[in-house]
Structure formats: C-alpha cells, structure tokens
Amino acid sequence: RLAPAAAQLPRRAFGSGGDPRGHLNPDGTRPEAEDAEDYHDPDPIDHTPTLNLVKERGQTWVVSGDPPKTFGQLWEDIPQDHVPHWHRSRLLIWGNYKLLMKAEYLFFYIPTVLILGLCIPMFTTIYALEEVVASTMTVKVTGRQWYWVYEVESPTDDGDDDE
C-alpha cells in the first residue's frame, strides 16, 4: 500500500510545518514582506505621528506635543553628580592642529619640492640642448631595413697645429 504524496515528503524543521501552501495567506496571496522595524513598509505615512501645527504671525509652526523637559528629566538615567570639568586643551587630542600641519607638509609641500627639484634641472638640460656647440667631429648614423650606415665627418688637418 502506498502513502499519499504529501506524506512521503520529508518534514521540514522550519517554515510551514510540511504544508506546501502554509506560507501563503488563506486567500492564496503572498503576505507582504516586512522588516523588524517596518523599515521597508509599503506606506511609511501610516506610522508617522500626527503633527501639531499652529498658525501664528502668518507662519505655520510645528509644536511639540510634549512639554519641554528639564535637564534632569533628559538625563535621569545617568547621574549628573560630580561631573568632571574638562579643560579646553583636551581638544588637542581630537583636533590636533600641529599634527594636521605636519601632515599637510608631509603630503603636499614635500612632494611639491621634490617635483620642482626634478623639473628645474630637466628644463635647463632641455634648453641647453638647443645651443650650438662647436665640435670637432660629426657622426651621422642612418638606420636601414637590415643594417646601419655610419658616416663620420671630421675636419681636415690643415697643418695649422701649434707644435
């Protein structure tokens, strides 16, 4: 004797307890996806508190529904006795101006000086190449498809050497 098809399926430890349609609403539609804090709610306006609007002097103001709280009511869980006084120099820990200046020198001025130190000699070398220099010999090298051609031109000896 064979068991019904639903009974042959293994029973799941989670979900609908074995009912293949147990995750659906009774009318067969899928339930709306919900988040723990209704963050992805289809209509967040449903969860917005009503605003207490007051018209005064031609302006519309939003007024709190609660009366203003005192300092003690705001911090009732945290005792406010013997609160230490922190000197303003404590800001040097978080907003250390001297350290920020060192970082600025380190990451901006030092690379700028290095780049200028490399560029200035480069420009002098480039402009020095344009000057004509008297030479005693000229070498002309021509590259052909399979070989090089060298032509050496040197001034002739006129016998004007001072000996």
Automatic annotation (TrEMBL):
The annotated regions of Low complexity compositional bias extend over 1-13
- Alphabetical list of InterPro entries matching this protein: CcO_II-like_C, Cupredoxin
| Reactions the enzyme catalyzes | 4 Fe(II)-[cytochrome c] + O2 + 8 H(+)(in) = 4 Fe(III)-[cytochrome c] + 2 H2O + 4 H(+)(out)
Q: Which cofactor does it need?
A: Cu cation
Q: Which domain of life is it from?
A: Eukaryota
Disordered: annotated span: 1-47
One GO CC annotation: membrane
Keywords (alphabetical) are: Membrane, Transmembrane, Transmembrane helix
Basic and acidic residues composition bias: residue spans = 20-46
Sorted alphabetically, which Gene3D superfamilies does this protein's record hold? Cupredoxins - blue copper proteins
Query: For this UniProt entry, which segments traverse the membrane?
Result: 106-129
> For the Cytochrome oxidase subunit II copper A binding domain, which residue ranges apply?
134-163
Instruction: List, in alphabetical order, the Gene Ontology terms for molecular function in this entry.
Output: copper ion binding; cytochrome-c oxidase activity
User: What is the protein named?
Assistant: Cytochrome oxidase subunit II copper A binding domain-containing protein
From what organism does this protein derive?
Answer: Zooxanthella nutricula
